[in-house]
Amino acid sequence: MSVPRPAMILAFLFASICLRAAAQPMAGFDSARALSERSLEVKFDASLKADNMRDWMKQLSSHAHHVGSKGDAENVSMIASLFRSWGYDTHVEEFTVLFPTPKLRVLEMTRPTSYRAVLAEPPVPGDTTSGQTAEQLPLYNCYSCDGDVAGELVYVNYGVPKDYEELALRGIDVKGKIVIARYGGAWRGIKPKVAAEHGALGCIIYSDPRDDGYFRGDVYPEGAYRNRFGGQRGSVEDMPLYPGDPLTPFVGATKNAKRIPMNEARVLTTIPVLPISYADALPLLSAMGGPVAPEEWRGALPITYHCGPGPAAVHMNLEFSWDMAPIRDVIAMLKGSSEPGEWIIRGNHQDAWVFGAGDPLSGLVSMMEEARGVGVLAAGGWRPERTIVYCAWDGEEPGLLGSTEWVETHADELAGKAAVYVNSDGTGRGFFSAGGSHTLELFINQVAREVTDPETHVSVSERARAAQILHASGTERKGIRERADLRIGALGSGSDYSPFLQHLGIASMNIGYGGEDGGGSYHSAYDSFDHYARFGDPGFVYGVTEAQTAGRIVLRLADANVLPLDFGDFTETIGRYVGEVMKLADDMRESTEELNRNVREKTFELSADPKDPRVAPKSEDPVPYFDFSPLQNALAALERSTHRFGEAWMGGRSGGGPLPAETARALDRLFMDFERTLTTKEGLPGRPWYVHEIYAPGRYTGYGVKTLPGVREAIEARKWKEAADQVVIAAGVLERAAALVERGTSLLKKK
Amino acid sequence: MSVPRPAMILAFLFASICLRAAAQPMAGFDSARALSERSLEVKFDASLKADNMRDWMKQLSSHAHHVGSKGDAENVSMIASLFRSWGYDTHVEEFTVLFPTPKLRVLEMTRPTSYRAVLAEPPVPGDTTSGQTAEQLPLYNCYSCDGDVAGELVYVNYGVPKDYEELALRGIDVKGKIVIARYGGAWRGIKPKVAAEHGALGCIIYSDPRDDGYFRGDVYPEGAYRNRFGGQRGSVEDMPLYPGDPLTPFVGATKNAKRIPMNEARVLTTIPVLPISYADALPLLSAMGGPVAPEEWRGALPITYHCGPGPAAVHMNLEFSWDMAPIRDVIAMLKGSSEPGEWIIRGNHQDAWVFGAGDPLSGLVSMMEEARGVGVLAAGGWRPERTIVYCAWDGEEPGLLGSTEWVETHADELAGKAAVYVNSDGTGRGFFSAGGSHTLELFINQVAREVTDPETHVSVSERARAAQILHASGTERKGIRERADLRIGALGSGSDYSPFLQHLGIASMNIGYGGEDGGGSYHSAYDSFDHYARFGDPGFVYGVTEAQTAGRIVLRLADANVLPLDFGDFTETIGRYVGEVMKLADDMRESTEELNRNVREKTFELSADPKDPRVAPKSEDPVPYFDFSPLQNALAALERSTHRFGEAWMGGRSGGGPLPAETARALDRLFMDFERTLTTKEGLPGRPWYVHEIYAPGRYTGYGVKTLPGVREAIEARKWKEAADQVVIAAGVLERAAALVERGTSLLKKK
After folding, report:
1. Which of A69, A424, A581, B141 is least crowded, fewest Cβ atoms below 10 Å from its Cβ?
2. B257: closest CA among B91, B495, B416, B98?
3. Which long-range contacts (CB under 8 A, 24 or more apart) does B221-225 make?
4. A214/B302 touch (CB, cutoff 8 Å), yes or no
5. pLDDT band at A297; cut points 50, 70, 90
6. How far apart are alpha carbons B428 and B462 in whole angstroms?
7. Which of B223, B300, B602 shows the shortest C-beta gap to A302?
């Protein structure tokens, strides 16, 4: 046989993929260009090498590389020079941000016995970097304020608002106390915020073994889960207010940017907060008294969980160096041949809390290999139609600093040029998942149908669907089976898509693999190369799959005749959200009536155990009926215009062949404008940095999304007037969106 | 003031109770007799003394008093002589039963390290009797077979059938292995039965701290919950087949009864089974490997729970003395004045596994005080219309021996005379709860509305309703609020009502208080006077409330013009059961279709983690549509006849005044026959001892009830032909019941 093996395999692969994919539509492409695009993807796939990812991860995780560290600077240089070597026009953009690091950390129990918290993660056998303790940032929560406080402990479960309702029901107040919360249930920054709102003096956050320790699986180094000394670092900046450098809201943190004084930075905590391991939490929790904690609050420590307050009391003293530090984003561009002014932006952060093999390097090295593959194609003569921009963000961990400052700095240019932002972060073995603008749902589904899962050899879409079906309830299952596309999630916060989507209105997505890479190394010194290579993605096979997926996404977005956005799934999804906020009002009305009835009828008092007494909650003002008709009418308008657009599109396409270039360009502009239209100049009530009226991180969920956030959060906060106002604002946004879609229909009919 | 205080209080109480109760109907009484009955109840209440209960409990729990022990014999004498002293015609009835006790108990881990189980409950400070270790039965499961076995361990969660499905999904077979199950989830006797059905060699049952240890609350002696060495003794007789002496099914275990050979006693286990503490379980469970147990299986030990098999292996050697032992029931009668041939039977067992303060003495001493109070009334000149029979059962713990043998011995007499059986067992602080024949639901509710909760001073009915409302789902809550009566549960097994209700068809009920007496002393040596007096019911105030409740029940049943049974609630409840079995078939049909579809579509394989692989379940034969029309028609007939009876009753009563004596007697007989009518001669498939077609303990739930058991269990077991047959049988029973109700209507119209 004279055909060399790799080429033969390539030919076979191409044939089989084309056979399977031939019938698959490829949004934004006519059939001829779809064929050549698929041929390009086969070449792209063939260039991907797991070993590169492994080598880069090993190198990039060989030293701690948090903001301001030597490791961070070295990694930035390495990444930038690699991008240059692959043919990208690469530069490093630097900002200067507030980045506090610990000077003093004391946590000691003073009553009923003494215990001084260890606050350190010791080296473990078989984990090479865990011995490099000198270069590690110690366990701390970034943007905690300084504080020297003492008081009795109160256990507050996850420390979210409803946990304080449970405490109140037991007559427990945290005023003047120090709360101890467990990680989980909401983003960590919510915990000190809510604790402070309730008058607590300090906040301890510990990792309960139930949530990511031995309850879940064997602990490191035997297994992947958090061991007794493992802690979780992390930011507690009040990101739901605004992310990025605390001192430069709304503007890029360039060298000479106007900065607000630190005491005006409302995103810093108002009480000191410290993360600890469960080895350090156990003596504290064991020494607590008061009522036994509600069943759902109890973790996996071998103790009876009590709420307190006391008798355990602690002293906590935190001091930070409030330094300014440089952050450096690597920006690498591959200019588009026909539409250089339309940018497809692809990003993943590179900074970590410690060694960061899983978070973020697993996603970063996959993106790098993807970029190298794209570079190989370019070196072979191919050029993207649109400009591709790869970004390796710095300072994501403290608060999306690198992406936010870049977005704020280049807001005007991005408003004109940014077509789609594609984000990833840590990734690993398991199932494909995606979140994003619902105009991208159809497109993402098409890609996921053409990427093969390395474990089961069906498409990653089919595998994700199987898992969803198996874990769904009866009605959900029916929906999953009957709907052509898998639903993508809506985006809240927690990674670098937030400024693109929620501050500028750029259609965005976040993709990754996971679910079989479980473990408890998150934000600990044990998130190391050794850990990842054993548990995260042995052999880096899912790293390759991620590169195949994101590579297709980037290539198709860059090459499509018309941007592959779609209004159908978006409009259907908005219909669901409108239904949800209406149901929210109805459900709250019913539960308020129920609460008030129980207060009147003394149900709480009568059913309580006098030895574990209850303080009946207060009755609440009834939930009014809202005029949702503006929202309903706007939705109906959007549905009508979406339908007409679909008809015009099908009509226009039925003759086959590409759209006229002029129409395609106009449609591209319209698709780009569409997401911008979903924003308002005023932004959300009380947090004007967030201007998107469909997606926002929740004020009290943090990472967790709130859709139609203005309306939803006003109802949840029982601000009836604001809710009514927000209905009108959201309706206005949807009316404008509908009008834009109408313009699209006209464009299609005109051609 | 010359009126002595107690008398004044009595007068006040009487006035206030009469005011509150005056408007309350009293089933079975005309208004004049209701008034005098309430006056009797006030006198009865006034006679009750908490101190008596305390003193008796202290005495009766001062020594271990299991079957065959010196303590048991002494307690029987004491109880009998007390009943005699209160004026009852009292005798002790003795039976001879098979009662094995341990000769040898060895449990040792042989791999990967050695550990020999302690199998003992040490004395604890502040618990007087815990030091009396010599007289205690050690930790064992009664009616375990002998066995010397060795093998690898498999963790089977609660050890119920669906747990083995989970293991199969992970490719784990227990054949030739020793299973370790945790207590809970079903009656303990189910665990070795199901393990043996799956080929296991032996069965260990341990008390996980999640279920009644530190996860729930502080452990003994600091708190009420099970400490690390606390174990749970208990019977593993296959009671769902038949209870009572294993050697004398169907007949009383009198001295010369014909006994079956031991190897024909199908209620003994076929593999050895041993209960252990979590101190003994921890080394075994810690040493296990294999897949991590499903999340719901994980207990509160500070380990990762693995399923096995192995590498931990154990050797288990159990030998028992298979002795015959005497059991002695105390039977105390107070002859009825007008209807001596109608018996109101009231029972509570007195035997315990060790000291048994909570189980059963809390219920027993309350029943004794109640009986003393009734005796005081009798000494004052009052006589019940019907005969009252108090029973202090022996041998309940090994398998309802005392009640079952008595019922089997006196079956013919009881069939003629027994009107209602009223059972109690351990009781404590908290909420009123009741289960029983639904012909008694209305009556029980009437009583519960007239007993005052000592903690909240509302009726125990109102308090129970408040608790139900607070813990119910939305739809349930609506039902609870809108229905006049609280629902009573249906009875499965687990106490002495079983032979009365399910073997003879005698209308029965089981009542008690609890829910605030939580703890983990059940069947351990720590179920002591000290434990109960601190946590079970300090001050014995609920003991008094229980006596007030059961006392009213007994007095009203004994004194009513007509037995206070009612067909309305019964018929409505049967309607629910019929709906449930029809829904069961539909749900199983749907889940079978779903399963088969997932098997076809390889959903299990596709969604499984290759590193934690799944063996897809086999597809199952589809669930046919059943002809439920016989059951529906019988129900409709019952509904019609119940409605007509209600009309006739109201019509007959509207003139006021008592029913003619002859009608009343005929109705009494009819009410007594009604529950008998719900039985069949053949009994349930495969277990002819159980003849009730509405209520039975589940074959695989043990204590847990199955209503319409013939139909329900046939469907659950996928025996389609049997299900269809059982529909006809159940329908026949309901048709006969409807005919009986029609006869009642005729009686009422004739008068």
Report:
1. A69
2. B98
3. B221/B124, B221/B125, B221/B126, B221/B127, B221/B526, B221/B530, B223/A304, B223/B519, B223/B535, B224/B517, B224/B518, B224/B519, B224/B520, B224/B521, B224/B531, B224/B534, B224/B535, B225/A304, B225/B518, B225/B519, B225/B520
4. yes
5. very high
6. 18
7. B300
Closest C-alpha among A240, A216, A226 to residue A276: A226
Task: Give the right CATH number for B568-750 from 1.10.630.10, 1.20.930.40, 3.40.50.300, 1.10.10.10.
Answer: 1.20.930.40
pLDDT tens-digit map of A486-544: 999 999 999 999 999 999 999 999 999 999 998 899 999 999 999 999 999 999 999 99
Contacts of B217 in chain A (CB under 8 A): 292, 304
B611: contact with A, CB 8 A cutoff: yes
The answer to whether A512 and A363 have CB atoms below 8 angstroms apart is: yes
- Chain A CB contacts of B462 under 8 Å are 606
User: Which residue's structure tokens are 């076929």?
Assistant: B270
Per-residue model confidence (pLDDT) at position A23: 61
From residue A156, give the alpha-carbon distance in Å to each of A141, A273, A289, A309, B228: 18, 14, 13, 10, 27
**Of A41, A59, A45, the residue nearest A365 (C-alpha):** A59
Three-state SS at A106: strand
Pick the CATH number of B99-324 from 3.50.30.30, 3.40.50.700, 3.10.180.10, 3.90.1580.10: 3.50.30.30
Q: What is the DSSP letter of B622?
A: P
Residues 6+ apart with CB under 8 A from B410: B252
pLDDT of residue A651: 75
Is a pLDDT exceeding 60 seen at residue B2? Answer: no
Check if B516 contacts A (Cβ < 8 Å): yes
Interface residue of A169, A216, A301, A304 to substitute, partner B, most B CBs within 10 Å: A304
ipTM computed for the complex: 0.93
Interface contact A602-B516, CB threshold 8 A: no
Compare all CA atoms of chain A with the CA of B515 and give the residue at the minimum distance: A609
Q: What is the CATH number of domain B47-96+326-559?
A: 3.40.630.10
Q: Which two tokens mark A163?
A: 């946990």
Q: What is A568-587+628-750's CATH number?
A: 1.20.930.40
Shortest Cα distance, chain A CAs vs residue B299, angstroms? 8
Q: What pLDDT does B5 receive?
A: 46
The phi-psi region of residue B399 (left if phi > 0; otherwise alpha if psi is between -120 and 50; otherwise beta) is left
Q: Cβ A304–B215 below 8 Å, yes or no?
A: yes
Q: Which listed CATH number (3.20.20.150, 3.40.630.10, 3.40.190.10, 3.30.460.80) goes with A5-95+328-455+491-559?
A: 3.40.630.10
Confidence label for A653 from pLDDT (cuts 50, 70 and 90) = low
Q: Which amino acid is at A147?
A: G
* A458:B217 CB<8 A: no
What is the full DSSP assignment across B493-545? Answer: SSSTHHIIIIIH--EEEEEEEEESS--S-TTSTT-SHHHIIIII-GGGHHHHH
Kindly report the pTM of this predicted structure.
0.94
**Residue B609 near chain A (CB below 8 Å):** yes
Q: How confident is the model at residue B518 (pLDDT cuts 50, 70, 90)?
A: confident
Pairing mode, if any, of strands B313-334 and B339-349? unpaired
Name residue, tokens 């209807």: B339
Q: Is A517 helix (H, G, I), strand (E, B) or coil?
A: coil
The domain limits of chain A are 5-95+328-455+491-559, 97-324, 568-587+628-750
Q: Which of A656, A689, A90 is nearest to A368 (CA)?
A: A90
Q: What three-state secondary structure class fits B116? A: strand
Q: Does B473 touch chain A (CB under 8 A)?
A: no
Q: Cβ of A470 and B607 within 8 Å?
A: yes
Q: Searching chain B, which residue's CA lies closest to the CA of residue A472?
A: B594
